[in-house]
Amino acid sequence: MVQQARQSSEAIPVTFIPSPQDKKSSHQGGKIHFRSQRGYFQRWRSGLNALLIALFLLLPFIDWQGRQAIWFDLANQQFYFFGASLWPQDFTLLAWFFIAAAFALFFVTLFWGRVWCGYLCPQTAWTFGFAWVEEKLEGSRNQRIKLDASPMSLSKASKRGGKHLLWILISLLTGCGFIAYFVPAKQLYPEIFTFSAGFLDSAWVYFFALCTYLNAGWMREQMCLHCCPYSRFQSAMFDSFTKTVTYDAQRGESRGPRKRKQATELGDCVDCNLCVEVCPTGIDIRNGLQYECINCGACVDACDQTMSKFGYRPGLISYTSEESLTGQTPPLWQRKRFIGYGAALLAILCTMGLDIYSRDPITLNVIRDRQSLYRETLDDGIENSYLLKIRNKTQQDKHYRIEISGALPYKLSTNRVHIAAGEQYELPLTLTVPVAQIDNNRSNLLFKVLEADAPDNSVSQKSVFFAP
Ligand code: SF4
Ligand code: SF4
């Protein structure tokens, strides 16, 4: 058996694929200096990255009904999202939102692989932003490699200093951008940049600024390779129809350099190495699908430009699937994962819709007086006391009416209340019934709170009236 196993393992050809860490010769001292690339996919990537950064920084400056439109007000335990307010008890909605987002990501991944990583992930957006600053101050890829190797000089120190200063500034803006979702943006920015912010606000801003500076400036692809769990389990969502960045080895091999228009027996890959030089994670896509690939498409654009220079058709590296390389286009219903993720996403979105639809704009909590079950009044009545906690969950001040229904003729100490937007009101309430009309020592009743101008908006809760 052992002999048989050894023979069969010897029959399997094994190819050693170097990891980015093994490629120190192509990436100076292990540091990846990737070449900036232009082209169709890079226009999409940089456009989406810019949109993401702009939205992230500008959204906290939008006001809605007199307050910041998106605001996690931790002090008052409320989350404002434009016209909606959420309290801790509504956080199931946020949980549904994150579950739906996860399944939407799985669904998109099934079709286009890791496009999230390449086009919308904040790590990618900020890394490319930092790399852009680096290129503007330190020059092209080759100039940066030379600068790394050169001894320290005034010119090198000024370039490095300028780069780190700009990185720190961007990091500070990012830290402010993040904390501005928790502390009003118009108050936070001036306070941070005039050093007058409180200790906690400053500490959180500096903490997130430091994380941004380290992640996008220093760690870059290391975050994707070693810290991001998504890169590890993404392949579980792929099937043979998933479009990923793929090198067409049949067409490209055997690779080799040549002159333009030179007749050759070689494959279409001219071995220009551009696909490796533009790769932000430092891999060679010609070695096949690798978990390091974030699907950013830089190598696709680089290779298409080389193909065009040599008069070859584009697409030697392209977004393609295993099946389309064999020329098959299967119907969607044959893809089990498509049906699975699609059904799960639909079910979650429906549940979330129902949850939103059934949310009450008022909440009511009736608490009976725990000191005494009842009290006898001087005018031959029996009195019970309650505490009504009524929350106005809308963003407008409202008047509410309180009604009681039950078997006895209850007299209310008050039946109207005014509650400010988003506030909870604690209303002590007394119910009195003439003793002559009580025939039971325990009667069920129902408290109902109605919006005065829109009685359809109401909430009710059962309670009990005790008598001797
Ligand atoms: S860019 Fe294209 S031609 Fe150049 S090495 Fe890569 S695959 Fe070959
Ligand atoms: S292999 Fe291509 S698509 Fe993948 S990360 Fe590198 S440049 Fe981007």
UniProtKB/TrEMBL annotation:
Q: Where is the 4Fe-4S ferredoxin-type domain?
A: 260-288
Looking up Pfam families in the UniProt record yields: Fer4_18, Fer4_5, FixG_C
- Record-annotated membrane-spanning stretches: 44-62, 93-113, 165-183, 195-216, 338-357
Species lineage: Bacteria, Pseudomonadati, Pseudomonadota, Gammaproteobacteria, Alteromonadales
Name its species: Shewanella indica
Q: Which gene encodes it?
A: ccoG
Q: What is this protein called?
A: Cytochrome c oxidase accessory protein CcoG
Tell me which SUPFAM superfamilies the record gives: 4Fe-4S ferredoxins (SSF54862)
- Keywords on record: 4Fe-4S, Electron transport, Iron, Iron-sulfur, Membrane, Metal-binding, Transmembrane, Transmembrane helix, Transport
List the PROSITE patterns.
4FE4S_FER_1 (PS00198), 4FE4S_FER_2 (PS51379)
